[in-house]
UniProtKB/TrEMBL annotation:
InterPro entries: YjdM, YjdM_C, YjdM_N. This is Protein PhnA. Residues 4-32 form the Protein YjdM N-terminal domain. Belongs to the YjdM family. Gene3D superfamilies: 2.20.25.10, SH3 Domains. NCBIfam families: phnA (TIGR00686). Transmembrane segments: none annotated. It comes from Oikeobacillus pervagus. Residues 46-112 form the Protein YjdM C-terminal domain. It comes from the Bacteria.
């Protein structure tokens, strides 16, 4: 058996190598050895719908019409959201949208500009 590193996310020992990436079949986490040394476990890593890493202050666009909870309005596709803030949780983007106010979004419904 080869000496592949355990998954840094779930600590599974069943990792495998796919080209230059290590992949965990249990949680789906992908990483390189360089990424493992760059990012500590304490740092929050959030990716958009296309897999781009998001950071605080980025500008993103909504890729799907989203119903606004507690309102009859809809957040339309293509809406630009500036100066996002990343938070821990299910809705991992905290932002203010013109015409809607403060809101939390899921990163899977946005793409980075």
């Amino acid at each position: 058996m080869s000496n592949l590193p355990n998954c840094p996310k779930c600590h599974s020992e069943y990792t495998y190598e796919d080209r230059s990436l290590f992949v965990c079949p249990e949680c789906g986490h992908e990483w390189t050895l360089e990424m493992e040394t760059e990012h500590s476990d304490d740092q929050l890593i959030v990716k958009d719908a296309n897999g781009n890493v998001l950071s605080d202050g980025d500008t993103v666009t909504v890729i799907k019409d989203l119903k606004v909870k507690g309102s009859s309005s809809v957040l339309k596709i293509g809406t630009k959201v500036k100066n996002i803030r990343l938070v821990d949780g299910d809705h991992n983007i905290d932002c203010k949208i013109t015409g809607f106010g403060p809101m939390k979004l899921k990163s899977e419904f946005v793409k980075k500009l």
